[in-house]
């Protein structure tokens, strides 16, 4: 079993979000970056569990500049066998998907597991794009995944419940909570990550979209405090003022 | 030239998120001075489809092949791309299914995707659509540089305005063959009787402040009275007081209801990331310093076990007096 896990690097949720250059660039000063949670906790760990059981390898792939390598090493420390860095900043979702496809298309991966979304641009898009480029099945928002006999059995969330579906491999799955439990790298993992293979490949530039400018949502008006004894007033405000009931 | 909306039904009723996609498509068609058309695949109720005319859709292209009733992102993508091949813009709700379809359609049609649009497009100096980023902490104004565009619409973005009109229904064949369907459904677990969380207009949510799963009765009662969905914080689903599909936040679902009522939830940044797109937020918490009050529109400092029963009573009274 050969599994590919695309991983991304994102600002920690507690980071202050600000922009520079006339609000055209995200200000990275003082921002702590982390591996994207769904990629690290769910996609990568489930991939490792599958090869631990059935044999095989897990390759992580990341598009980003050289300063991303510490995050790639972290994924290797968690247990990935080898890594690929696509040497260019990510321009849009299509650009990243295309680059991952260009690398993966002739390598014979049985399975590609992405995270459901990155917590910075909240795209939910790269997994589906890779699947279409590869012309293989795609199951999104998966909370469980079993592989056997050339088939993937996947639990996916639907409105108001959960659906269990089966698709043939090779396929692309996007992972979310429920699929696995986070693994903290141990000393042995961290030591061995230093010498695991990390290849750097060039990128293609094609993309579909670009961000022109960022802005901030309108500031919240101050919270109106209501007397806990007077829930009639709250209901009345929700009806008359907020018009939500 | 046209703008296409992709329509899904559930139990023969068009999903609310699809009605929004239809309305968004017709508003976009007005901006672009063209026609708004809908695409429906599989089993749908004909009068429901015709009623899309009230949202500005002139024509519905319907491929009634029942194979489409099993959700298969690859087959649906192929069908949409084939039916929409002469259209400029395709609008798809970014609900759970849309998240599997829209990125595929984007690649297949070589059309730039806005994954989660939060407003109508603007044509000033290009084709521009804005989208929330950094979990709602900022807005990015995207420009789409391809001739065709896919707009994946965040649910609950627009207030629907219905007018008069009936859409004509035209049967089409999308040219999808049986071999294009690769997904087999093995089972469905419905969380029966409850309102779907990501589509809900009202959400009642509770956290660790409720002390234990046995105390959720009042939350469910309030939700039932209001016709709201129930949700919870991660702290609560982690200890299995509530099922995981109720967990909202950075690592759970993102919701954008008209009203989010948070009971006994502190308002950690990771929780807010999933709910701060809500139009109005009510916070009920014993601690006046709880961070959630900073994100709230209405706050009640008080004990949930006292306040929620009073709120249920006040809501019942309100409902009895309206109409
Ligand atoms: C990487 C990461 C991702 C995370 N993702 C998520 C996520 O997606 N969603 C999420 O929710 N959390 C998430 N968390 C956890 C988050 O940081 C908080 O720990 C969690 O939201 C706290 O849940 P809570 O508010 O229910 O509990 P607490 O923080 O314990 O708050 C309980 C609140 O109840 C109030 N209270 C107590 N008694 C009463 C009473 N009788 N009446 C009224 N109020 C009362 C208290 O004052 C307090 O404010 C994440 C954390 C990390 C590190
Ligand atoms: N720069 C990147 N390099 C590699 N994989 C990525 C990158 N960005 C996103 N991904 C993968 O695509 C998934 C979905 O991201 P997105 O569509 O951007 O929300 C993530 O969870 C990652 O698995």
Structural account:
The complex is a heterodimer of chains A (245) and B (323). By secondary structure, chain A is α/β, with parallel strands linked by helices. Chain A is built from 6 helices and 15 strands. Chain A has helices at residues 37-54, 69-78, 93-104, 126-134, 187-193, 231-240, and strands spanning 2-6, 9-11, 19-20, 25-26, 33-35, 57-63, 82-86, 111-115, 138-148, 151-158, 161-168, 171-175, 198-201, 209-215, 224-225. In chain A, α2 (69-78) links the parallel β6 and β7 (82-86). The longest helix of chain A is centred in the first third of the chain and has 18 residues, at 37-54. With 323 residues, chain B is an alpha/beta fold. Chain B folds into 2 domains: 3-180, 3-Layer(aba) Sandwich (Rossmann fold); 197-321, TPP-binding domain (Rossmann fold), CATH 3.40.50.1220. In chain B, 27% of the residues lie in helices and 26% in strands. Chain B has 9 helices and 17 strands. In chain B, β13 (202-206), α5 (217-226) and β14 (229-232) form a beta-alpha-beta unit. Chain B is globular and about 60 Å long. Chains A and B meet through α3, α4, β9, β10 and β11 of A and α3, α4, β7, β8 and β9 of B. β11 of chain A pairs antiparallel with β12 of chain B. The structure holds flavin-adenine dinucleotide and adenosine monophosphate.
């Amino acid at each position: 079993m050969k599994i590919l896990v695309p991983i991304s690097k994102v600002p920690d949720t507690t980071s202050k979000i600000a922009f520079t250059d006339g609000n055209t660039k995200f200000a990275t000063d003082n921002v702590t970056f982390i591996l994207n949670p769904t990629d690290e906790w769910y996609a990568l760990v489930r991939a490792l569990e599958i090869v631990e059981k059935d044999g095989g390898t897990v390759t992580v792939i990341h598009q980003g500049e050289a300063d991303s390598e510490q995050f790639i090493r972290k994924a290797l420390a968690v247990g990935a066998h080898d890594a690929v860095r696509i040497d260019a900043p990510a321009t849009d979702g299509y650009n990243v998907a295309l680059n991952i496809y260009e690398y993966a298309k002739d390598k014979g991966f049985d399975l590609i597991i992405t995270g459901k979304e990155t917590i910075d641009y909240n795209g939910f898009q790269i997994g589906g794009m890779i699947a279409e480029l590869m012309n293989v099945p795609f199951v999104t928002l998966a909370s469980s995944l079993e592989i056997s006999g050339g088939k993937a059995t996947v639990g996916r969330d639907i409105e108001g419940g959960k659906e269990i579906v089966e698709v043939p491999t090779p396929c692309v799955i996007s992972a979310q909570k429920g699929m696995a439990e986070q693994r903290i790298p141990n000393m042995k993992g961290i030591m061995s990550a230093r010498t695991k293979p990390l290849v750097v490949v060039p990128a293609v530039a094609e993309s579909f979209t670009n961000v022109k400018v960022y802005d901030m949502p309108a500031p919240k008006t101050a919270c109106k405090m209501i007397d806990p004894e007077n829930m009639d007033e709250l209901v009345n405000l929700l009806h008359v003022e907020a018009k939500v009931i | 030239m046209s703008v296409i909306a992709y329509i899904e039904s559930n139990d023969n009723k068009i999903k609310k998120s699809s009605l929004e996609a239809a309305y968004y498509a017709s508003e976009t068609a007005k901006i672009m001075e063209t026609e708004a058309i809908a695409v429906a695949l599989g089993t749908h109720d004909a009068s429901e489809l015709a009623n899309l005319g009230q949202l500005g859709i002139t024509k519905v292209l319907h491929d009634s092949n029942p194979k489409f009733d099993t959700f298969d992102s690859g087959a649906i993508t192929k069908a949409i791309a084939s039916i929409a091949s002469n259209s400029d813009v395709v609008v798809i709700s970014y609900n759970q299914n849309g998240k599997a379809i829209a990125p595929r359609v984007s690649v297949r049609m070589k059309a730039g995707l806005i994954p989660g649009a939060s407003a109508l497009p603007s044509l000033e100096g290009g084709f521009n659509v804005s989208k929330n980023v950094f979990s709602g902490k900022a807005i990015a104004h995207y420009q789409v540089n391809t001739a065709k565009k896919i707009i994946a619409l965040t649910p609950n973005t627009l207030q629907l305005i219905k007018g008069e009109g009936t859409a004509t229904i035209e049967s089409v064949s999308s040219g999808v063959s049986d071999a294009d369907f690769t997904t087999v459904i093995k089972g469905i677990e419905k969380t029966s009787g409850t309102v779907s969380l990501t589509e809900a207009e009202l959400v009642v949510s509770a956290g660790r402040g409720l002390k234990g799963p046995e105390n959720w009765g009042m939350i469910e009662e309030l939700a039932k009275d209001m016709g709201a969905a129930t949700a919870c914080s991660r702290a609560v689903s982690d200890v299995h007081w509530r099922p995981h599909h109720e967990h909202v936040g950075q690592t759970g679902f993102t919701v954008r209801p008209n009203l989010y009522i948070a009971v006994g939830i502190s308002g950690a940044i990771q929780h807010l990331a999933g709910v701060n797109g809500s139009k109005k937020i009510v916070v009920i918490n014993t601690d006046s310093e709880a961070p959630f009050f900073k994100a709230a529109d209405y706050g009640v400092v008080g004990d949930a076990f006292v306040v929620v029963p009073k709120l249920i009573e006040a809501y019942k009274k309100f409902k009895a007096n309206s109409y």
